Amino acid sequence: ISEMFNSISYNKGAAVLRMLSEFLTEPVFAQGLSSYLNTFAFKNTVYTDLWDHLQQAVDNTPGLDIPRSVHEIMNRWTLQMGFPVVTVDTRTGTVTQKHFLLDPDSVVDRPSQFNYTWFIPIKWMKNGVDQQQYWLLDKTDTHSS
């Protein structure tokens, strides 16, 4: 069990929660988290309970659009080993993701039901101006604005 909860797990968990808070917006994340904590105070819970409460907060927020449910987005981050590295070709607008491996020659022997593809929120700027958030939903996509 100690291998399941090491510094890598905690660091990834913190980064994933920060990303989640950013794409849901801080107020929506806080609303969902508060609801979750109040509901499960002094009780047992599973991670999907958090996704449910965050989804309720999303559903109660007009104008907040995410491309998939909180469950679908977050399961790819929490149920897959590692994380993606994103590459952007600024000439063509092509955005790609690839499973990050510290040793690029290593072989991944643990299959993923998601084929090591993540739903990735991408914030970007053009000429110093924030642009609308873009979601990379496949291994590769071409984004044009």
UniProtKB/TrEMBL annotation:
This is Alanyl (Membrane) aminopeptidase. It holds the Pfam family Peptidase_M1. One of its GO terms (cellular component) is cytoplasm. Keywords: Aminopeptidase, Hydrolase, Protease. It comes from Nothobranchius kuhntae (Beira killifish). Residues 1-77 form the Peptidase M1 membrane alanine aminopeptidase domain. GO terms for biological process: peptide catabolic process; proteolysis. GO terms for molecular function: metalloaminopeptidase activity; peptide binding; zinc ion binding. PANTHER family: AMINOPEPTIDASE, PROTEASE M1 ZINC METALLOPROTEASE.
